[in-house]
Design goal:
about 170 residues, about 70% helix, mainly alpha, 2 domains
């Protein structure tokens, strides 16, 4: 049974890799980021250790998130999202606590990574709290690892910063 899961995972990873290549046919080969090294949570955790970034991305979700990032939004690879993910992992407990409270120096620092103006922090924080609340309320929350929670929090913050980017954040 285990062998079947491993084979299925390898086949899924290969199909994801080739589907990503098909999407980016209009670009010169090699012009985009390497999804397994430059994108996803692996790149955030191991920016200078390529084998560890690849391993992390494959173990996390067979590299799906990394490939989607590389094809749909290559500008996020090794950019602000990766920096934010690393910051969240570095000060995980403080960011989660600040998010629950709706304020705090670690949450402020997180929004500064994205280049958000101070005047927009309250609005973005409220939206992040609204997005994070259902996750915390879920009975599965206690079984999630800090890495899993950090990934979800980065997705929520990325989404809210994208909304605010036109007026008060410079996430580029």
């Amino acid at each position: 049974m285990k062998r079947t899961k491993i084979i299925s995972s390898v086949i899924a990873a290969a199909s994801i890799m080739f589907s990503g290549a098909a999407i980016a046919q209009d670009k010169a080969p090699g012009s985009g980021p390497n999804p397994y090294v430059d994108c996803g949570i692996g790149a955030a955790l191991f920016p200078n250790t390529h084998w560890a970034a690849i391993t992390s991305n494959v173990i996390w979700d067979i590299g799906t998130t990394a490939v989607i990032s590389a094809t749909a939004s290559p500008e996020t690879c090794q950019g602000k999202s990766a920096q934010a993910a690393q910051y969240i992992l570095d000060v995980y407990d403080h960011v989660v606590e600040n998010t629950a409270r709706g304020e705090g120096e670690h949450l402020t620092a997180l929004l500064q990574i994205y280049g958000c103006e101070t005047k927009s922090h309250g609005m973005i924080t409220d939206a992040v709290r609204e997005g994070f609340a259902p996750m915390i309320a879920d009975e599965e929350y206690d079984s999630l690892s800090p890495l899993q929670i950090a990934e979800q929090l980065v997705k929520i913050v990325d989404s809210e910063v994208s909304v605010a980017q036109a007026t008060s954040c410079n996430a580029a």
